[in-house]
Fold each of these.
Amino acid sequence: MAKLHPFIINFVCYLCDLISYLDVMNSQSQIITVEVSIDKPISVVWETWANPIDIMLWNIPFNDWHCPKVVNDLKSGGRFIFRMEAKDGSDGFDHSGIYDTVIQHQLIAYTGDDGRKSEINFIAHGDTTTVSETFEPEIMNPIDMQRDFCQAVLNNFKKYTESKIA
């Protein structure tokens, strides 16, 4: 069997590293958007989104998860920490960061502690409100898993908010 020249081996390793790097950069350059329309006026939607007690009840992607801790200083420069975890303790994480821009009843933009940017837009249509969340994906999990996770949280937010009696 012929031996490969060390230059060729190094070059192949370099190409593999480059492909991995480009895959990471490509996933970071993608933007994920999820959206939900809620049959409540924007004032109710905004208050439900902002209130820590409400957040603990709607910020849940699956029935076997919960959000046991919320800190939410909803103002530009304010800090947030949402603890999300499986009820059996098998998985969990803190979703946390700093609010960059907060415009009541319109926009929340923030930077997560991991440096990723997110933007949540609130659009009133009479007594219905559209909530649209756009965020930079992280590199550890597939894009569609992140989108589905966030969409599940928004769907739960819709269900919870629409069940509130104003």
Amino acid sequence: MSDQPAPLPPAPLAETPRLSWPTTLVRDSYLAGERADALASGTPLDSLEQAAGDFDAYVRERRGVRTRWGVPSTVFWYVAGRDYLGTLVVRHQLTPELAQVGGHIGYHVVPPWRRQGHATRMLAAGLNECRALGLGQVLVTCDADNEPSRRVILANGGVPDGRAGHEDRFWIDLGSTTSTRQPR
């Protein structure tokens, strides 16, 4: 039993969350959320400290279509006003490596916004972005022991396609529906 008080729940969101290009408007919330995520997962804080030093440059480096993992990729932040809830990355195509592990979409929600349905809605919005790119189906993967992410993928139409390494693979058929929605 811990002597630490239970963390307070977040204040209600003033706006409906949406995908957005990375933005300086959520600086404090981004840094706090990603710091909490890094501490929870044991990830080093080096890149986050660099981001805090020049957040404007950090945001500029993440906006638009950039080559990451050897393919065109777009980074979106899931935001509600000045609240940053998470990140979603769309890889516009797959390399042979990404076709095994990584897939078209990667995402995460930062504490304290987890377990509130945000990941499910964020992935659904990301699938709309994939439709706008003309993708007919996308590969989404998650760690084999990440049951919450597995449920998010299944809730968005994921069809299991086995395991590669330590990741479970799922294909999501996007059908012929297209979206012209652009992030703000």
Amino acid sequence: MYWKIFVLLGLGAFVLLSAADWVFTFTLLRTHPHAIESNPLAAACLEQYGWNGLAVYKAFGVLAFGLSVTLLLRRRPSVAAGVVTLGCVTLLSVTTYSHQMLCTLNREARTLREAEWPSPAPSETAAVEESPIPDRCWFADELPPEKKSRPTITTVQTSHRQREARLPAVR
């Protein structure tokens, strides 16, 4: 009975983490157009069918994982608990990586925006200020404790190719 409750709670956590992964992917790809989806199957679904296609792809992945763990739970409950734990830890690491990437890209965009010379036209500033992404994360500090000092910017102008080279791929 203990294993069954543990596995069901783990499956619930897996569903929530999958939804968070989709939201972070959506936010990264919509707000940072140079970012890419690094999973080739997910990228193909996104390219062919759009955001709804990616949501269906993720939903089928969650459904397949849930059904396989449920079948495993009937025969080997302890193994099912291990599988659901491994799945949650893996998805948690992907979601944490995506969140960290969002924070880093937003911090860099804000730093570049503050360093621009001359100031951007009012229409450009309005589009940036209307961004749906908050400046601070609700559960993490803006900067790690060892990086609390403000970075020094040596070059103000960067080319389009240099910015693309610095953007990491979305997992």
